[in-house]
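Task: sequence design from structure.
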């Protein structure tokens, strides 16, 4: 062999050794995977149930940790979730007109009236109104300022509750619960024993109920943080009368006399009604008494008259 041939042979031998080692490692991994699969298929349903739980649980838990850590910086820069509520109390001579103006403000901010109650007097005039408004949270401050200028402002109040932590916690729990249900469904597809199937279905039912509850909480928080709630109360303010109190003239005197006569008649009727029971009681007691006295007088007068006749 020439030196050049020896050099090539010396270079090929390490490469062949490395390739042979890689082929042996791959073959060994395939054999171990195949033996593991045959062991799982030969094991009973209980063993088949436990093996996927441990493997998938580790992977899912690790995935959950990675997703949580990956989302942490993004959540820290998100806008806070705030539940905003307001109360406005107004007073107006035209309650119906003020209510119309309130509805125009709601339409201006693309809101909605979730509840409304109105009261009217005997003439059908609106004397009070109660409205519950839902306004986009981004326009809460401007909507409150516009509502305060609809009529005479008697009271205005605002409140804000930060629920950012609660919203993030609910979202994380929702993702974890969905992954847990997906794992349970996978185990249910692999189960072969009736006992394991019943156990897995009970766990699936419980976790599905927890998921429904979390979804309702998430929907409530999403609704409350996206739309602010404003309560508006409008009361009627009566106008001062333009008629003078000291009216004079024939009609004024006739009206005053009639009202006086009615007042006297009502007073006499009230007094007669109050005295009538007493009169009845006195008559019931007086008539027997008068008859008794009259009988006693006649009896005393009878002996004195007999000698006079003799």
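Answer:
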């Amino acid at each position: 062999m020439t030196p050049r041939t020896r050099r090539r042979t010396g270079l090929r031998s390490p490469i062949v050794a490395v390739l042979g080692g890689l082929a042996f490692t791959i073959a060994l991994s395939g054999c171990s995977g195949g033996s593991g699969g045959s062991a799982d298929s030969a094991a009973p349903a209980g063993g088949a149930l436990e093996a996927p739980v441990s493997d998938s649980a580790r992977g899912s838990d690790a995935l959950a940790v990675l997703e949580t850590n990956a989302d942490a910086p993004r959540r820290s820069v998100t806008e806070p979730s705030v539940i905003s509520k307001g109360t406005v109390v107004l007073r107006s001579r035209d309650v119906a007109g003020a209510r119309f103006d309130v509805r125009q403000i709601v339409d201006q901010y693309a809101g909605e009236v979730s509840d409304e109650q109105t009261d009217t007097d005997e003439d059908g005039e609106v004397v009070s109104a109660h409205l519950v408004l839902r306004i986009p949270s981004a326009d809460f401050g401007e909507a409150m300022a516009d509502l305060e200028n609809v009529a005479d402002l008697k009271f205005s109040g605002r409140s804000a509750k930060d629920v950012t932590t609660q919203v993030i916690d609910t979202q994380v729990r929702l993702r974890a619960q969905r992954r847990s249900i997906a794992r349970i469904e996978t185990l249910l597809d692999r189960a072969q024993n009736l006992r394991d199937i019943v156990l897995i279905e009970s766990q699936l039912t419980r976790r599905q109920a927890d998921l429904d509850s979390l979804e309702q909480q998430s929907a409530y928080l999403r609704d409350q943080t996206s739309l602010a709630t404003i309560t508006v109360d409008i009361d009627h303010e009566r106008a001062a009368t333009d008629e003078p109190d000291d009216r004079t003239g024939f009609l004024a005197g006739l009206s005053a006399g009639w009202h006086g006569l009615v007042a006297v008649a009502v007073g006499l009727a009230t007094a007669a009604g109050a005295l009538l029971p007493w009169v009845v009681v006195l008559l019931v007691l007086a008539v027997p008494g008068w008859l008794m006295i009259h009988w006693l007088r006649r009896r005393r007068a009878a002996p004195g008259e007999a000698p006079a006749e003799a």
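The two ends are 201 Å apart (CA to CA).
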